[in-house]
Amino acid sequence: MNAAKLKARLRKDRPMVMVSIRMPADVVADLKRIAPQLGFSGYQPLIRAYVGQGLRADLERLEGDTAVTQLIQSLRRQGIAEEVLQTAVAESRVRYEVK
Which of 12, 57, 71, 93 has a CA between 20 and 30 Å from the CA of residue 64? Predict the structure, then answer.
């Protein structure tokens, strides 16, 4: 995520939208129980934090994939063989997989 987007996300006065989501009662009970232990004022801010963490991780992963895709396209234009590109991508995925 670029610096401008990150700075905008850190603003406390961002507009909020009401969202309704159905969750199992035991999950909500657990969220209510652990929110104060983690320093949250309630379970809803904790849910927002969880959603934000997951969203940032996915955005980083997907934006990173875009950079890799652009690199591969550039290498193709440079004349690198398709087999070499496929091997390199496969090796990098194995090397950097989360275990």
Answer: 12
